[in-house]
Design a protein that fits this description.
The complex is a heterodimer of chains A (89) and B (992).
Chain A: E1 3-6, E2 10-13, E3 18-22, H1 36-44, E4 52-58, E5 66-72, E6 78-82
Antiparallel strand pairs in A: 1-2, 3-4, 4-5, 5-6
Chain B: E1 14-23, E2 26-32, H1 36-42, E3 47-50, E4 57-59, E5 71-74, E6 82-86, E7 96-100, H2 114-117, H3 126-129, H4 137-149, E8 164-176, H5 180-191, E9 196-199, H6 217-235, E10 239-242, E11 245-251, E12 255-261, E13 276-288, E14 292-294, E15 307-309, H7 310-320, E16 327-332, H8 336-346, E17 350-356, H9 363-371, E18 376-378, E19 380-386, E20 393-398, E21 408-411, E22 414-418, E23 421-423, H10 426-430, E24 435-438, E25 443-446, E26 453-455, H11 465-484, E27 516-518, E28 523-524, H12 525-533, H13 539-546, H14 559-570, H15 574-577, H16 591-595, H17 612-617, E29 621-625, E30 628-633, H18 641-654, E31 657-660, E32 665-670, H19 674-681, E33 694-700, E34 706-716, E35 719-724, H20 729-743, E36 750-753, E37 758-764, H21 768-772, E38 776-777, E39 790-796, E40 799-805, E41 813-819, H22 823-834, E42 840-841, H23 844-853, H24 888-891, E43 902-909, E44 921-923, E45 931-941, E46 946-954, E47 963-968, E48 971-978
Parallel strand pairs in B: 1-7, 8-9, 8-13, 9-10, 13-26, 15-22, 16-17, 16-22, 17-18, 31-42
Antiparallel strand pairs in B: 1-2, 3-4, 5-6, 5-7, 11-12, 12-13, 14-23, 19-20, 20-21, 24-25, 27-28, 29-30, 31-37, 32-35, 32-36, 33-34, 34-35, 37-41, 38-39, 39-40, 40-41, 43-46, 43-48, 44-45, 45-46, 47-48
Helix pairs in contact in B: 5-6, 5-11, 7-8, 8-9, 12-14, 18-23
Classes of the chains: A mainly beta (89), B alpha+beta (992).
Chain lengths: 89, 992
């Protein structure tokens, strides 16, 4: 079980969190302006890297808030976490 | 009397306390402190099992958890027994009953041993090459036959009576293994101020120190040191000590799973104790002091009972006072076996010879052995062995001759082998620690120091008691400093300097006869060579093809030998071959420990509505809907389900029914931007919805497919009462939070789950208004005052009321939302008022039938994650004038508007009594078998006195009037495609 650093509550066990997928997938302000390929890319294409990955987590059984974290997908170690809107450390 | 092979003195057994136990029906005696293995050996029993594939007689090979052969079933009753236990880890107690496995009719005479004679027909991967015909033969004939022949123990036949506990623990330093390195590490870490948790899989702390011979001054010192160390640790309140506790899994961020066996060693355990405890430990620092495992030698016939690891024989002698034979041959490729041979000779075991594969063993050792009267034969290998149920002789031959041909036959009843020691890096590797190959050891050791895990002692290649203690002390000190004073620059451990020269190769001899690499899965050196010849290059593929290392022992004794064979066959070196992945569990773990208390009624939480007790009192039959228990129907005495549902349906359509809808998900959406928010989430418009009105909302995912639905009432300008499906509430709330927090944080909206706050009492039917009218205060119930899809705030019996005029039945209907704590009293009042008027309680089954008669969909039944609003006839709910909502862009894709998409239709069977199977496929031509769609709902409708069905059919709306076919078991049913509304298509009854 991972130990996940919630930027609001501190390190908490994985059981309290829900995974939110890759971070920084910004929903277009006006999706109607996108062609089908670009829309499909927004819906489905993710970077899925081997190594550091910026991703969203929600402390669903804690403060309930979403935040961003950077995790190494090989070692599962969390390098940093930060609140939405903040610059990643 | 506890065995003819017991020494007169010595060992850590309690000779004052004999223990009687049963093995395969034979009553034997051991001593308290014995394992099943040591007690059997003390009685001269070596034959303990039959091998997995060839049913070859097998004996005890090891003394620890690496034992591959001696698997037994322990326990008498089917609800308290465990198969596949290693006899080396089973502590005996008075009355213990153990049985051997995989043999019929008996261990000494096993008909399965025929496999051994046809073994040339059963090479590696034989099941991929043979049994290919006929194609269905594998499932019907071959697999059942193979499984009956090759198996481990029989699973228990009854539910486990024991209790299992689970707990979490935190510590500064977790020390795994309490041998010399582990004890020293724990002492040093505790002195460094750390909270320490020390665990060891054995019954007693001490590890290799327990093998120490009390008769020698050196042994005395180390045993005395051990006793003092344990006492010091026990007295320290900051140290937790766990024996009989296996660290079986190590995960990221120093999370370690331990299984503590609490009562398995007790004849009469305290009923209040759990059988096992699963510890889930988070440790700031981990010291791994897991020791090393001796490797067997790979020579023909190396698997007969009486052939065991040299270190194991020493362990049985020193720790248990058991001589494992009377005349021994010692085969070795290293130094360690010399001490064993000398010790055994001193204890009265005749040593026929030491066969050392090395041409030039250290002169000092050779001299010592020869002083003890032992014949040492350098450059010698075992070319073959004889003996059916016990080894009776070995052929020793010159290594230069490849072990072939002329050798000298030596009689023996014990053959000890020592092929070097493999550091136990399982846990280190499970947690993805990097390993490097140490040529001097012929094995892998931990590489480097990641700052959180420290290896110490034999598991990192430091051998010898004194050296291991020193290494453990260093490791404990470093771990404590890192854990307790992390602000200081954490010291890193220098990698261990190991000599580069290659250890004397324990090169497996590939002569005639079968040399076993993996005893438990019956893999021979020839199997490995065959796999390489057939083109399996990757060691991971060789492993899977031959199954070497894939038995329950995970190849503890076999992996390195298998790697050596692959390297030899490929003409390369072991580091180039690589290492297979280590996975948890280190040793098998019971399902009980992993499940813990989550069994039976505690398997999943059960959610009950505030009206549950009333429904149960009425004899309701419940069904599970997500975690909820919902009343499915309310049978009267003697009624079948069909009769009850028909009666309930007629009552709702004719008079009125009352229904517990409390499980509906409810979310309070509040704030100045609440309407804007809902308009962006749902396909419908909400800005213009007036307070006091409600709307049926459809929620899509961003990909345009229906995710949920529900009625949304506007309580006031800035407050909405959103309902969701019963199972969908958490998903919908999470989705709303996601958009609110991350896409539109500028919106001033707050979301609260109110599912459990409001109980919902639905009263549906032509007389619904008459029934509730006297109970409702300050709400105008007239059709003009509260029209269909109206919502009003009021009071009932002095309790706050949110009254929705909604219908999921097609009848005049109301849903009374009242605080959950008052649900029963309000319900009672409605019941008391309605029952004399003909009010009937109905359940979810009737609800389903009534809504299907009206063509109302159920998300998850008519929809499956690939269905758009238009597909189910809800296109008109979509407000296309809105600039955007979740899923809108996806609905604009051409494929989403394809007229051949599956669409919701009704189906009427030509024979009205036939009810279609839900999920049945629909075809135009039964011969073509091309599916046009499937039946989503099908019921017997009492209202229409015939069966009805809803279905998703390709281009369905254009097919209305056509006849299609529904193939079901044993027959094909013709159906007519109709509009999906079977009753009151104009919807006039809603307006009653």
């Amino acid at each position: 079980m991972l130990l996940i650093p919630c930027p609001y509550c501190g390190p908490r066990p994985e059981l309290e969190f829900a995974y939110g997928g890759e971070a920084n997938m910004v929903r277009p302000a006006d999706p109607a302006l996108l062609n089908d390929d670009d829309w499909a890319a927004f819906l489905y294409q993710r970077s899925n890297p081997r190594g550091l990955h910026a991703e969203r987590w929600r402390h669903v059984h804690g403060c309930g808030r979403f935040f961003n974290a950077r995790r190494d997908t090989v070692s599962d170690l969390f390098q940093a976490s930060w609140k939405p809107g903040e610059a990643p450390p | 009397m506890s065995g003819a092979f017991r020494t007169a003195t010595g060992g850590r057994i309690d000779r004052a306390r004999p223990v009687r136990f049963t093995f395969d029906g034979r009553v034997l005696t051991g001593y308290e402190g014995d394992t099943l293995a040591s007690a059997l050996l003390a009685n001269g029993v070596h034959l303990v099992g039959r091998s997995f594939k060839y049913h070859r007689p097998r004996g005890i090979v090891a003394a620890g958890s690496e034992e591959p052969n001696a698997l037994v079933r322990v326990g008498v009753s089917e609800n308290r027994c465990t198969p596949n236990l290693r006899a080396t880890g089973v502590e005996i107690y008075e009355g213990l009953v153990a049985e051997s496995q995989n043999r019929f009719p008996s261990l000494a005479f096993d008909v399965g041993a025929l496999n051994d004679f046809v073994s040339p027909l059963l090479p590696a991967g034989f099941y991929y090459k043979t049994f290919m015909w006929p194609t269905w033969g594998w499932h019907r004939w071959y697999e059942p036959a193979v499984r009956a022949m090759a198996r481990l123990g029989r699973a228990p036949g009854a539910a486990d009576l024991d209790a299992y506990a689970q707990l979490y623990a935190h510590c500064d330093v977790l020390v795994v293994g309490a041998g010399p390195a582990g004890l020293a590490a724990a002492l040093a870490a505790a002195e460094g101020g750390a909270r320490v948790l020390l665990c060891d899989e054995q019954a007693e702390f001490g590890g290799s120190l327990l093998d120490s011979n009390e008769a020698t001054p050196q042994g005395q010192a180390s045993l005395a040191w051990m006793a003092e160390a344990v006492t010091t640790l026990v007295r320290n309140p900051r140290v937790t000590m766990l024996t009989r506790t296996t660290a079986f899994g190590m995960f990221a961020q120093n999370f370690v799973a331990l299984c503590e066996r609490v009562t398995d060693h007790l004849a009469m355990p305290d009923a209040a104790l759990p059988r096992e405890r699963l510890w889930q430990v988070r440790a700031a620092q981990i010291v791994l002091a897991t020791g090393a495992i001796e490797r067997p030698l790979v020579f023909p016939g190396n698997d007969r009972p009486g052939i065991m690891l040299a270190g194991a024989a020493l362990n049985y002698l020193r720790r248990y006072g058991v001589r494992t034979g009377t005349r021994a041959v010692v085969a070795t490729s290293g130094d360690a076996a010399y001490e064993v041979a000398i010790d055994l000779a001193t204890a009265g075991v005749a040593i026929a010879a030491i066969a050392d594969t090395r041409q030039d063993p250290p002169a000092r050792l050779v001299a010592r052995a020869r002083d003890a009267g032992i014949n040492v034969r350098p450059g010698t290998v075992v070319a073959n062995t004889v003996g059916r149920l016990r080894v009776s002789g070995a052929t020793l031959a010159s290594r230069d001759g490849g072990g072939s041909g002329r050798g000298q036959r030596v009689n023996c009843d014990l053959l000890l082998m020592s092929g070097g020691h493999t550091p136990s890096v399982h846990l280190f590797s499970q947690a993805r620690g990097a390993l490097r190959f140490a040529p001097a050891l012929g094995a892998f050791v931990p590489d480097g120091d990641d700052g959180a895990v420290v290896a110490a002692g034999a598991c990192r290649g430091v051998f010898g008691t004194e050296a291991a203690m020193q290494d453990g002390r260093d490791a404990g000190t470093i771990a404590a400093m890192r854990a307790v004073q992390p602000s200081l620059v954490p010291p890193r451990r220098a990698p261990l300097a190991l000599p580069d020269e290659t250890a004397a190769a324990a090169a497996p001899v590939s002569a005639n006869g079968r040399a076993f690499v993996d005893f438990q899965n019956d893999v021979t050196s020839k199997d490995v060579e065959l796999a390489v010849r057939e083109g399996f290059v990757s060691v991971e593929h060789v492993k899977r093809y031959t199954t070497t290392g894939m038995a329950t022992d995970q190849g503890k004794t076999s992996n390195i030998n298998a790697l050596g064979l692959v390297a030899q066959a490929r003409g390369t070196a072991v580091p180039q071959v690589g290492l297979t992945t280590f996975r948890m569990p280190y040793t098998p773990v019971t399902f009980g420990a992993l499940a813990g208390p989550a069994r039976g009624a505690l398997f999943d939480p059960v959610r009950k509505t505030p009206l549950h007790a009333w429904a149960a009192g009425q004899g309701a039959v419940f069904e599970d809907v997500s975690l909820w228990k919902r009343a499915r129907y309310f049978p009267l005495a003697g009624e079948t389900m069909a009769q009850a549902v028909a009666r309930e349906c007629r009552a709702v359509r004719g008079t009125a029914g009352i229904f517990d809808a409390s499980t509906l998900g409810k979310i309070e959406v509040v704030g100045p931007d609440a309407a804007v928010f809902l308009e962006r989430m749902y396909v419908n418009g909400f800005q213009k919805l007036a307070p006091g009105r409600a709307r049926y909302g459809v929620l899509l995912r961003e990909d345009g497919f229906i995710s949920d639905d529900g009625v949304i009432g506007r309580i006031s300008v800035d407050k909405f009462h959103v309902t969701t499906t019963t199972g969908g509430a958490p998903r919908v709330l999470a989705m709303m939070e996601d958009y609110l927090q991350t896409e539109w944080p500028d919106l001033r909206v707050w979301l609260t789950s109110t599912t459990e706050e409001w109980a919902v009492i639905a009263v549906q039917g032509p007389r619904a208004r008459d029934i509730i009218a006297p109970l409702v205060e300050s709400i105008d119930l007239s059709p003009g005052g509260l029209p269909h899809m109206g919502v009003a705030i009021g009071c009932t019996l002095g309790v706050p009321l949110r009254l929705f005029r909604v219908s999921f039945t097609g009848e005049l209907g109301f849903e009374l939302n009242v605080p959950a704590d008052y649900a029963q009293s309000v319900f009672d009042a409605v019941w008391a008022r309605g029952a004399p008027l003909g009010l009937v309680a109905y359940g979810t089954e009737t609800m389903h039938v009534l809504r299907a008669e009206k063509g109302y969909i159920i998300v998850g039944q008519e929809t499956d994650g690939t269905v758009t609003p238009d597909d189910v006839g809800l296109g008109s709910a979509v407000n296309t004038r809105k600039p955007d909502f979740v899923g809108k862009r996806s609905l604009a894709r051409a494929a989403m508007q394809d007229p051949s998409r599956k669409q919701l239709v009704g189906l009427l069977t030509e024979q009205p009594r036939i009810v279609l199977d839900e999920g049945a496929q629909i075809v135009a031509d039964p011969a073509s078998r091309k599916s046009l769609g499937h039946v989503t709902s099908a019921y017997e409708s009492a209202t229409l006195n015939r069966s009805i069905a809803l279905a998703m059919v390709a281009g369905g709306r254009a097919r209305i009037g056509e006849t299609l076919q529904v193939p079901m078991q044993g027959r094909t049913v013709p159906v007519r495609v109709v509009a999906p509304v079977f009753y009151d298509p104009a919807g006039e009854r809603l307006n009653g």
